[in-house]
Amino acid sequence: MQVSEVTDEEVQLLHDEDYERFELDDASQPRRQLQDQSGSRGFWSRNRAPKWLAFLYGPDPPKIHTINPIFPSVQQLPRKWLEKALPGRWQRIGLLILFLLAWATSLAIPLILSKGTATDASGAAIRHIDCVDTLWKRNNECGLDGINCRPFSNTSFAFRCPADCASVRVLNPHHVGNQDVNFRPLVVGGGGNGPYRGDSFLCGAAIHAGVIRDTTGGCGVATLVGEYYQYFSSSQHNIESIPFDSYFPLSFTITADPTLKCTAPDPRWTVSLPLSILFTVLLTIFTTSPALYFFTTFLGIFTHVALVSDPPNLSTPSTTYLLPSLISHYAGRLLPAIFTAAIIYLTSVRHTLSPPPPPDSPHPPHPKNHPLETTLLHPPSSSRYRGWFAEQPLEEQVFKWTREAGRVVDEYFGFGFVTEGGRALDYTEAGTWFANGSWSQGAGYW
């Protein structure tokens, strides 16, 4: 096939008067080898789909979706200012390191103050407990007559609860007398200034008693009072306790102690969340790299959730520290999370965050919805999308593919036929378009 030299590369349909200029030999005449597969599409055809599902097929005819930013010049001001203030690459890397250190410090300081060691008036360590911790062990672990849960009375200890414990509920049926308690806080008793049953949630009972606040957590003192009869119900601080009209061997009361050194409150809502939002916004408006933006934001959000806003359920006795266990769980989950994030980035995020092409660009980024798509199999230098045919391919049509100006190397590629929905029908056998303009004839369709 003889090919003329032009200044740009394109694919176009030849008119009848151009046939003599581009003669095809007998071996290159198109032969019909595409089978009509319209019947195999069945329900998934656009014409057969219900009207309320038509939006799933996209616009007809297909077009490239573009997003027109609001005030683009204003959105680019922070990045232009940064490039002007710090023109060097190493200067911006140093600024990024300082930025990440500041973000990590903003998470670490409130975490250490809220999860570190605190003491009561006697100097004993305050126990960090979880929202579902109870004095009476579950699954009959207390043994016969509760021997493994003693002492039942004359004992008190200080404890600390995290925030958001009022919303914690029992997710499996729990028998309280003749009731099956499910999907509600397990707080038994507490009405009429009475004690709570020993299997009640300690933090839920502390919120019900008004000793701590649900939004910030806090510290309290639990005093064991032994066996008690007739636990009354009451509704206080958005928690309704459960009545029980019999006796239980272990009961406790919750009181506040102003001498407790409970340090800082739970930082998840008051400190850490606003700071994480601030650092994320700053990274967004000053960053142009999709990889840097995605992985930095992912690591920051993962750290915030794992250590601050939704940490694992951990409890500590009075002789151990909570923070090392928390960091150990975080480190164990970080590597699988980064692996998953890398897969998500390579498969979808990098395409989403990449800058869109100019509106007048002749090379759309994803031309899957056009009838004929060129498939570059082994490009000599870089992958280049060569265009598509706007008409349905027919046997009688003859096409011209002009070479890029100044390009004199051999090119190896094939043609692919796709439906208007983007599903591949078939592909031609690849051939070589030599620098002299000739085309290698294979056993394909051309």
Automatic annotation (TrEMBL):
<dbReference type="Pfam" id="PF03815">
    <property type="entry name" value="LCCL"/>
</dbReference>
<keyword id="KW-0472">Membrane</keyword>
<feature type="compositionally biased region" description="Pro residues">
    <location>
        <begin position="354"/>
        <end position="364"/>
    </location>
</feature>
<dbReference type="InterPro" id="IPR051957">
    <property type="entry name" value="CRISP-LCCL_domain"/>
</dbReference>
<feature type="transmembrane region" description="Helical">
    <location>
        <begin position="93"/>
        <end position="113"/>
    </location>
</feature>
<feature type="region of interest" description="Disordered">
    <location>
        <begin position="354"/>
        <end position="376"/>
    </location>
</feature>
<feature type="transmembrane region" description="Helical">
    <location>
        <begin position="277"/>
        <end position="307"/>
    </location>
</feature>
<keyword id="KW-0812">Transmembrane</keyword>
<keyword id="KW-1133">Transmembrane helix</keyword>
<dbReference type="InterPro" id="IPR004043">
    <property type="entry name" value="LCCL"/>
</dbReference>
<dbReference type="InterPro" id="IPR036609">
    <property type="entry name" value="LCCL_sf"/>
</dbReference>
<feature type="domain" description="LCCL">
    <location>
        <begin position="192"/>
        <end position="242"/>
    </location>
</feature>
<protein>
    <recommendedName>
        <fullName>LCCL domain-containing protein</fullName>
    </recommendedName>
</protein>
